[in-house]
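Comment on the following before class.
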Amino acid sequence: MFKHSIFLRIYGGLVILVVLVALFGYLLVQIINYQRAQEYRESLTDGISYIITEGISRQPNAQQKLDWISDASDLLELPIYFVDANKVSLTRTEKKRIDEQKAAVRYDASNAVTYVILGIKDDPNHYIYIRVDNFNERQMKALPVFIMDYLVYYPGQEKEYLQKLQSKFSYSVSIENIQNLPLDSEQIGRLRLDHSIVLYRDNATTRGTNVSIVSPMSNSYSQVLVLGPIPLFNWMPVQLAAGITLLSLFVLSLGVYGLLVPMQRKVRQVNHALNGMKAGDMSIRLPVDGSDEMASLASSYNSMSDHIQRLIEAQRELMRAVSHELRTPVARIRFGMEILAEDDDYDSRLQQVDMIDKDIEALNNLIDEIMTYAKLEQGTPSFDYEKVVLLEVLEQVATETEALKTQKEIILNAPPEYLQVDAEYRYLHRVVQNLVGNAIRYCDNKVMISGGVNDHGKAYICVEDDGAGIPEQDRKRVFEAFARLDDSRTRASGGYGLGLSIVSRIAYWFGGEIRVDESPTLGGARFIMTWPAKRFKSEKKNYLKGMIDGKSE
């Protein structure tokens, strides 16, 4: 059912598309945040890495460098290693950062451990390797110690050199007056006791929460060293959320467009075909792709176009044939009327009246045939299907034919009396009558009528004759309206070329077919019409019961 409904496919496609877009957005956020987190970690370490490498470089010898590193490790409570450069494999990006006196940061997500690699300015053969398992307030409060250790070499010029260092930091580093900071008395008291403090601030803007580290200056009670505010990492800032949302909506709109384009294209094709039909072009046909509603619409349009085109052609052929067929009896009637007006002989006048009456009867028969054919060609006729005993129809036609004194032998291969088929009696009678009449017209001596139900559950009627038969190349043409294979013979035997065409249309509306071949028994033409013996499954049980009851009788 899903593949046969274009609307279910669109709704299902939208659900799948939403899921895919949501998954795409989630993966995109993860990828972007991985890069953002890496850049955030690097930005936090760049400034302090420069201070640490400067502090190590100022040591006069290797032993003092090692001592400085040991003191730094104790202060930060983090393991810091002095390693050979050839033992550390660096990527090109990491090597570039170290050459720029920045830190190369590696994050192990499985163990939640960060590794920081620092270069030493005057010692390219060694690296500083720091393992950061956890970074808390204790490490935060230790950071100002490294900055003040750097500034101690510039007494009285701390602010000037701190401004030069600012370019190395991604956050503000400054010396401020303690009175200018929004601190309470307890925080000021802790600074007076030479303790660093960490301030957390929630910002209502897009920056979110930030952290500031305030540390007392060793040479002044009124001034403090302030690091920050340092923004904490925000996994979903407004800019990222807005960007991902807009991108997801764009991808979703492209997906929806992709789902609707095929239907739009098919609707455009239907509209083009209808405009062509409106303009009189009946040759346009739509491609039938798939089995959904649009395919059903295309198939219905094609069937409608075929039917309309067939009706138009049939109407044109009918008009040409009718005008041709009517001329002869009308001309004979006019000729007979002229003779009546001039002939004074009573017997001759009676003879002319009789001939005119026959021509009028011929006109009535022709009109009846034309009306029947036109009714069957105009559209689906209203059939009142019922259970018909096939033997009764065949016997009735055989009796009516014998009553015409045709001097032909009628052979009836009677089907079982209990055999019933679904059909409309009137039209089924017309089929048998037309086929038998056609056979009488062209046979030599014998006509054989038979009927029944074959092994495929199809009802059939078979009419054979011992005439000359129909050439194979003409067997399809005999069912065309007003078709005559031998015009002179038809004129002699009567008929208008509509009988077999009417049979063909009745077979079509019965849901069956009519075909002609050579009779294996009589050697002439054999016409066989087949159609579904049962049209209503609900009646199958009663049908079988009727057959069994008939056999038991």
About this structure: The longest strand covers residues 220-231. Residues 487-494, 538-553 have pLDDT under 50 and may be disordered.
